[in-house]
Amino acid sequence: MPTIFARIIAGQAPATIIYQDELVTAFKDIHPLAPVHILIVPNKEIATVNDVTPDDEAMLGRMFTAARKIAQAMGIAESGYRLLVNCRDDAGQEVYHLHMHLVGGRRLGPMLARRD
Ligand code: 5GP
Fold this sequence. Notes:
By secondary structure, this protein is of the alpha+beta class. 24% of the residues lie in helices and 22% in strands. It has helices at residues 4-9, 57-74, 88-91, and strands at 17-20, 24-28, 36-42, 81-84, 100-104. Strands 1-2-3-5-4 form a five-stranded antiparallel β-sheet, with helices on one face. The radius of gyration is 14 Å and the shape is globular. Guanosine-5'-monophosphate (5GP) binds next to strand 2. Residues 4, 15, 27-31, 39, 86, 92-95 line the site of guanosine-5'-monophosphate.
């Protein structure tokens, strides 16, 4: 079964696409956690960071250059933003198709909540 992200990339499910090239697609998160919340996703189906290989290095670099372009286009390059990748259960990964969250447009606070 293709993931929901694979269906979005293929144009078979709706999403607000922000950027697309031969390696990655970026679209708005359906439940944004900040004024800007974009998901940058490889066009190739890779489940998690555990599944990337050296052959994926061009695509992984493209995720960052796409993030830079999108942050600039969204007007948050100077104010700042956070890039975040969840891997498997302890990180709370929901969709098993590798993706980078680009969040910004407000003060984001500490990177992690303290446990105590
Ligand atoms: P994860 O927890 O796996 O790192 O993040 C998955 C993200 O995908 C969540 O922020 C969630 O809101 C987003 N998401 C889940 N389903 C959809 C969908 O169908 N469309 C879009 N645009 N985002 C989705």
